[in-house]
Write a structure and sequence with these properties.
Distance between the termini: 38 Å
Helix content: 25-40%
CATH architecture: 2-Layer Sandwich
Number of strands: 4
Largest sheet: 2 strands, antiparallel
Strand content: 5-15%
CATH topology: Alpha-Beta Plaits
Keywords: 4Fe-4S, Iron, Iron-sulfur, Metal-binding
Structural class: alpha+beta
Protein name: Ferredoxin family protein
Pfam families: Fer4_7
Shape: globular
Length: about 130
């Protein structure tokens, strides 16, 4: 699940916002990315992958928020590891990009997110009298 935005690294390009299939991120008032809907995160790591500044940290826990701070994320040594290990951008010369293999998984996650959103919309509001 997306845990933290390293604000001092974020350049406000919005690439992570565009990449997120669940609209978890948005550009905040200061032009930096903010986590808008953390519980909706699918833990797909696309935001990390598309962030050229390594300003995002996704923890592999899918079911709950771990509460990781920026300091803990940096201390883990894993900030930017997803992009590096998938051979994106400056890492292309040292790592083979095999991310295309994830296409079917991402499509399944996208369809599940659409189904969940439709189910939430279809539910009648609790406490509403008819």
């Amino acid at each position: 699940m997306i845990e933290v935005v390293l604000e001092n690294r974020c350049g406000g390009c919005g690439d992570c916002v565009d990449a997120c299939p669940s609209d978890v991120l948005r550009l905040g008032a200061g032009g930096k990315v903010v986590i808008a809907a953390q519980a909706d995160c699918q833990t797909c790591f696309l935001c990390e992958l598309y962030c050229p500044a390594d300003a995002l940290f996704v923890w592999p826990e899918v079911e709950r928020i771990a509460g990781i701070t920026a300091a803990q994320a940096l201390a883990s040594g894993q900030v930017g590891a997803f992009r590096r290990d998938h051979g994106w951008d400056e890492h292309a010369a040292t790592h083979t990009n095999q991310h295309w293999r994830m296409g079917a998984i991402f499509e399944r996650a996208r369809l599940q997110a659409i189904e969940l959103a439709a189910a939430r919309t279809a539910r009648p509001e609790e406490g509403r009298s008819s």
